[in-house]
Amino acid sequence: MQFLLAQVSDLHITTTSDRLGGFLDTGPFLTAAVEHLNSFDPAPDLVLMTGDLVNNGLPDEYARLAELIAPLRVPYVLVPGNHDDPLALRARFPDQPWEPGASMLRGVVETPLLRLVLLDSVVPGEPGGRVGDEQLAWLDGVLADASRPTIVAVHHPPFATGIEHMDAMGLADAAALAEVIVRHPQVEAVVCGHLHRAITTRWAGTVAMTIPGIAHQVALDVRPGAPVSFTMEPPAVALHVWTNDEGRSGRLVSHLSFIGSFPAKLAH
User: Which of 10, 83, 105, 253 lies in disulfide reach of 120, CB 3.0 to 4.6 Å?
Assistant: First the structure.
């Protein structure tokens, strides 16, 4: 038996009259990502979008986001990022599985094979993130409630990458999050966005990873004091495959699938 979780991140959707950085319309990149996801065979069971869904947290941006992801043929769940406005996001997507009445956009998605826990790391007005003591206590309780295989999703990665300008806006309470995660060995992975790159590390007794954005990427530059720089490297989606073979323990395997047309070469 399999469960297929696709992940996209850092959409940075603007209004139709605006451009990211004054020149980049991210809308067509999301359209291409949706078409790419719709082409998967078998189709994903669920699509996870890990934050920076829009660029300025504006209601008109969320309206465009809803229009662009409407053709997606499978269900999706949303995690906020530092470019998002949680209030405007909740207002536009009221049917998301976020906990009713909570000030943060957190929630749990139960599937037959896998559990997905959504965290909100947004600090209003700040590029960096924080989970917070109250949400950490909630997470500890949620993870203690069931020992089923679990993926935790949060926008800000809880580990340093060596890309200094991004590490400066990381997750402020990563150590406190690690104390919770390490107590619950059923956490198969912590999946994140924010970095606009594919990065994987061993962390808190599990695997933590980030994935590329659907448009622009952060340049790979680990020199001390390196300037902020972005590139137009190929965008990608992740496909997290949970396989639960009869009589065997399950296993999570994560793939990157690049968006675009890449001519095949056949070896003789």
Answer: 105
